[in-house]
């Protein structure tokens, strides 16, 4: 007798009941919430009929047909397209946190529209999609170029996309500050709004979304083969590179088309696939289908919440992009618990024998940096442009010039010192040389609190602002450490958690940009590091605070030296690890909060200064702290001087200029690691 050789057909994983139930609840809640304000004027049947007809003699029916119905329709259409694009992106890269948002596509699309508005307005008249697609291709091309040597590891891709988003956002903001009269409405649009007053935008958009969606679905079989791995897929005859390139092109076309029409709402492209995966969608077909369904429901829900918030806020606009970001942030935090990364972090070697520059004398290096810092301060005080061109201010007149140039220069230098110290603390504490207050979201936590403080109209003074920003920074870092405990404080969890905090900061920033007015202008200037409103008392107060913290740092040199050895070894050597981590947490938060109040949250000095100290041969904790502090002060001192003079009589925020330089430095470092 022979055993029955008939193979039992493999069955697809059963679909958990919670997935369709959750999707149905999201859709039902979104539709009811969206329709609820109309039930007093129209019955449900008439409201549904508003999608195709209206009663010309009854104003609520006309309004529902031309305002409510197209808004609901375009939210569903765009949510469907972005959910599908996000699922395809995650499948291409094998990365559960990849999306058009985290790859910088939406920032690139907005960058393209900004450039076209300023320099090539004829292109916008020809097609707004063209310039948005070109910007999206630029962004995703940079991500691919930076990370393909690293095997598209999840953390590397997210980091590259996030920094490109930072960088392009800083460039966009520089244009806004310089050409605000041309671009003000563009950035209000960029916050993302689905407000409609006719059906024409929907009629223009639906053929493109459906065609691009159909092309993505046509790639389903090649995308399934990619799950076998690059080698296996290639052995089966699949052209892996061509499949990835074509699929990414479709993702860029879908995302950029949406961005060019309604602004930045692309966090749905991250939230929907992540939520589908968390709810149990295991196969590619299920992920694509349910990501599209959930994306449509989530965007409709977010748009309804934004509409309600606008109504509650006395009619002031709350962008849909803000609501989608606030929904996307918690979903990222949920997804972090299941992310595993087998690749090393950029900047981390395979073992302890990594890049160790030759040791150099701290006295010599510190002396050179201190001399450069003093020279920068002297030049900043003495040589500046004026009404009659560049002129030299004699030292005897520096007392008069100090009122205009001194406080901002001193505050910028002190903020650089604080960020250099904070960056060194964080890198030593986490054992991750790519960590910094900006990349971990600590500056973002401080910024979120500052945004909330300004929006509610609280006048708490500079001391209160520093205290509030410190609380926000400490809360952000504490949350990240809490989330990362499950993974033993792995650097990837900390950095991806920082991405979630950036989501919330970005949502607040877009909300302020859309609100307009003097409050928005003041807060935007602060967000990008304007120093020209710093008073002498504020600068001297910051100096006293930094000096106090610097004296306390002498006490934490031993804990910072022992913590990288691991919790067991550090405890065996007599270090109370929990208390040491708490003390370091508070010091890093206080330094970050004080600097963020002055220079804004996106300077990258906290990343660059510790690296420079290490490159200059300072390996031990105390020496690295000293040199990083001097390097940070020098970087922001130079940035403040250049920002004040390079486009005189206009000015750039020093933090914005530092962010541009720092973003380029980070991208260069990532590409250098890839070549290594």
Structure, described:
This protein has 676 residues and is mainly α. The chain is built from 28 helices and 2 strands. It has helices at residues 18-35, 44-49, 59-93, 105-119, 121-126, 128-147, 154-178, 180-190, 200-218, 220-226, 230-235, 240-262, 268-278, 284-312, 320-336, 362-382, 398-430, 442-455, 461-484, 491-515, 517-527, 536-553, 557-562, 567-572, 577-599, 605-615, 621-645, 654-675; strands at residues 383-386, 389-392. Strands 1-2 form a two-stranded antiparallel ribbon. α4 (105-119) crosses α6 (128-147) and α6 crosses α12. The longest helix has 35 residues, at 59-93. Residues 1-10 and 341-355 have low confidence and may be disordered.
Features of the shown structure:
676 residues, mainly alpha, globular, disordered N terminus
How would you sum up this structure in a few lines?
It is built from 28 helices and two strands.
